[in-house]
Amino acid sequence: MSQMNSLYKRYPCRDQQINSLTAILTRDTSKPPALILYGTEATGKTVVAKAVLDEIGIAYAYVSCKECITVRHIFEKAYTSCVALVGAPNGTQGSEQKSPRPDSVNNLAVMLQKLLLHSRPIILVLDGVDKQREITSTILSGVARMGDMIENLTVVLVVTAYGPRLLNSSEPPSIHFPAYSKEECVKILSLSPKSIFEIDNETEYSSEMENEDRWLWTQCCSAIWDIMGKYAARNVNALKDVVDELWPSLVRPIVENEYGIRDFPKLFNRLKNEELRHSEEIYLASRIVTSSKIPSDGDLEASNRTHDLPYFSKYLLCAAYLASYNSAKNDTRYFSKFSDKSGSRKRAKRKRTGRQVII
Predict the structure, then answer these.
(1) Helix, strand, coil percentages for the chain (3-state, nearest 5)
(2) Is there a single domain that holds both residue 100 and residue 249?
(3) CA distances in angstroms from 108 to 62, 73, 75, 142, 243, listed in the order given
(4) Domains in the chain: how many in total?
(5) How many whole angstroms separate alpha carbon 339 and alpha carbon 319?
(6) Among the four 25, 82, 170, 296, which has the fewest Cβ within 10 Å?
(7) For residue 118, with 0-12 CB atoms within 10 Å meaning exposed, 13-18 middle and 19 or more buried, which class applies?
(8) Kind plus residue range of the DSSP H or E element containing 71
(9) What three-state secondary structure class fits 83?
(10) Hey, which residues does 37 pair with through a beta bridge?
């Protein structure tokens, strides 16, 4: 119980997920062959899974699929991680060049089956596997079914979105990590507030100063969430980045003895005015183009690379722009998946009916 309490304190607002994950992975009978952890970004899926596995003492191999270029790279990294965990099988010790490298799901399953034949039960965690461009539902289904073939293996898939079409097989147990609410985000960020004044070795950090710092930090997080919670600061990490950026400007009047710590409305209004004035100055400066600073071809090429959109967003934006030229009444005709087939069937039926009438 003390282990769970420590996890609750380290990862607040995730008690239900910690309990579910612990109950599934510590079954006395048989562990599930696969487990799905899903939720949006910055919801604690990876960090909670690692903490629970470390706490209950189950051996696991972790693979960050975001660092893998291709699907084959994922398979190779998964196998090498398992080898590093349980040791190389007999007859395969040698140089890295001669070590086997799986190039498909079936090959990976066969190699892991030989590797884990007489080993202890392990867990293979594939983090962000749905973000890989080459991944398909067939490959994900094959990866999830490896636990059915290998008795000592449980595959944990950490994904962003989970639906019935993600896997073409029987649905494994899943744990949802919902997005944090405003109260939960403020509670999490309040665990490590920043100080108003600089603290050196000679200054004593009293409990009163800690309470003042925590109060002002909580007020700042709550106010910024109200303004930017649905846009730029949609998760805990983004909110923390924004608060860290604005915190020095917020506490500067307190350090200079212009306002008190409890004058938060005045502090925040001054902060908003300063940020608005700063953004206007940046906009005006960007509109001033001097003749002495004409960009070269190399600068333009570098600028294009800097402001390039993500891979899928670029093509989706182009497709939406081109589709906007069509009339809205033709959307079903041009973009519906079943419109062409139904239309062709109707036209064929009309032709057959016309021929029968003529006959």
Answers:
(1) 55, 5, 35
(2) no
(3) 16, 12, 6, 10, 45
(4) 2
(5) 19
(6) 296
(7) exposed
(8) helix 71-86
(9) helix
(10) 158, 175
Beta strands in the chain (DSSP E): 34-38, 60-64, 122-127, 153-159, 174-176
The residue with tokens 């004044």 is 197
Residues paired with 175 in a beta bridge? 37
What are the beta bridge partners of residue 153? 122
Give, for all 359 residues of the chain, the pLDDT tens digit.
667 888 999 999 999 999 999 999 988 777 789 999 999 988 999 999 999 999 999 999 999 999 998 999 999 999 999 999 988 766 555 444 456 789 899 999 999 999 998 888 999 999 999 888 888 888 888 998 999 899 899 999 999 988 766 766 667 889 999 999 999 999 999 988 999 888 776 667 788 888 999 999 999 999 989 888 777 667 888 889 889 999 999 999 999 989 998 999 999 998 888 876 665 555 456 555 444 455 565 655 655 555 677 778 888 888 888 888 887 777 777 777 654 455 555 556 665 555 454 44
The secondary structure element, H or E, covering residue 50 is helix 45-56
Which of 176, 191, 219 corresponds to the end of one domain?
A: 176
Q: Cα(first)–Cα(last) distance of the chain, in Å? A: 85
- Token reading at 16: 């239900």
Please indicate, yes or no, whether residues 66 and 160 belong to a single structural domain of this protein.
Answer: yes
**In 3D, which of 272, 269, 277, 250 has the Cα closest to residue 261?**
250
Whether residue 51 is found in the same domain as residue 116: yes
Whole-model pTM?
Answer: 0.72
User: What is the domain extent for residue 249?
Assistant: 182-287
Query: In this structure, is the dihedral angle defined by the CA atoms of residues 128, 131, 132 and 134, taken in order, positive or negative?
Result: positive
Helix (H) or strand (E) holding 247: helix 236-255
Shared domain for 10 and 153, answered yes or no, is yes
Question: What's phi and psi for 133, nearest 5 deg?
Answer: -65, -35
